[in-house]
Structure formats: structure tokens, C-alpha cells
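Onboarding guide, step 5: your first structure request.
Type a short instruction followed by the sequence, for example:

Predict the 3D structure of this protein.
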Amino acid sequence: MILIDTTLTTPAENLAFDEAMLEVADRDSETSLERVIPEVLRLWEMPSPCVVLGRASKWAEEANAIACERDSVPILRRVSGGASIVAGPGCLMYSVLLSYQIRPAWRMLDSAHSEVMTRMRQAVQNSLNSLNTPVQIDLQGTCDLTLNNRKFSGNALRCKRQWMLYHGTIMVAMPLEWITEYLLEPPRQPDYREKRVHSSFVVNLMDGHIGAATSLEFKNLLQKHIAVAWNATPIGTDTWFQQEVAEESARLMQSRYSDPLWHRQR
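The system replies with C-alpha cells like these:
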């Protein structure tokens, strides 16, 4: 697996890049017998706050459009399922591009959730353990990571014929008032939430009292442990795969992600 540490200029470009990785991998697996398509771990961060709707989310039910418009916070739509999120600086984003040829059992979604989240939970736990922080990270719901029964990581996936994109959030030190301000209470909630409002349900990992480490130091430590969990190796930026992803991302920006009507389709 290769490691891509790429954060683009705008929230929309970052979402387009994720979808482009999946489209290029699945397309080339059908048309090219010579190229070896790599599995990918991408680590990145939204450059500014935004609301990201799930593929089937309804704009009016999940986003506080009035507050978002007032504060110039974009409301965008991603290619994967799940509920809406707020992301921005202080929230580490990860994206894993996975091959069914390498991992055929992961076509079963329960297996995919278990395998991915086991690795992500352990990476977070190892990061905290290395700082001698005596807290326990748990997996709750379908694919949430929690600290003291409060959620700091939400995750989603998108499946194609031969490849899967699994991506999610890890809140390290993001202003939690963004979530309260820009999201409505979700229409679909896991049982363990127990109808708690956002401010009582979500938490930053930095709130777990991780010693003298700064948020940047902890984020860098977390990235290293995630890369180890996936055995991901950094590569250069001029590979054929990254070039094709950049081209596909530009096409998706033009056809979808730059179009307000596409984001507001539901």
C-alpha cells in the first residue's frame, strides 16, 4: 500500500480527489492488464470548515443552511453513504483505497467495517499509549470510534466492482461548536447515542488529556501509527496513478463538485 499525504486547496477538491482515486482504480482494473494499481492510504485535512453530506443525505434535514450561509461555510456532498459531518482544521481525515482482488472477503460489508476499524482503533490506541495516556478507545455502532462513550471518529464507504473507498474522520482538536452550529440533529442515530445533542455526544482526542503534546505533535504521531497499521509507504508525486487521479479529479470538479445543484440534489 502506498501513502499519499495530499491536502488540496478547497474542501470540494479534496472530496473530488477521494472519488477520483476510486474511479481510476476501478476503471483501470477493467481496461489495463499491464499496470499494477496500488492500494492507497491518503492522510489529509480539510483546509477550512465545511459540511459534508452523505451520498443520500437530505440537505434540509441534516445541515443548518442558514448558519452555513451566514458564515460562508460550504455544504458539499460526498460519494459515500452515512450521515452528514462537519470537517475542518483540527480534524484528521483518512481515505483507504482497497482492492477486492487482494481482500476478497471484504466484499462483505461487515467484514470490511471490522477489518478497517480494527486497524484504525488500534492506531489511535497505540498513539495514546505511546504518550502514556490511560484511556480506552472503543468501537461502537457500525463504525464509530469513541472515547468515554463520546464519538470522535465517523466513517463511511463506497463500493465499486473491484475496489472500495473507505474514509473517515478523527477529531483531534477541531472546534466542536462548528458541529453544533452547522449541523441539525441527525434523523438517523445509533442506539448508543441515546438521543444526546451534539455537544454531549462528540469529543476531541485532545480532550482526553494527552499530556504535554500539542495538537500538531499528536496529529503527526497519529499519522505515523495509521501508516504503520496499513503498512503504507510514501512515494513520489509523479507516478502514473497520481497523474490519472489528478486528471479525473479535475473532470469531477467540473462535472460535479463545482456545481451547487449537484450538492443540493436531495
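Each response can be followed by summary notes, for example: The longest helix spans residues 109-130.
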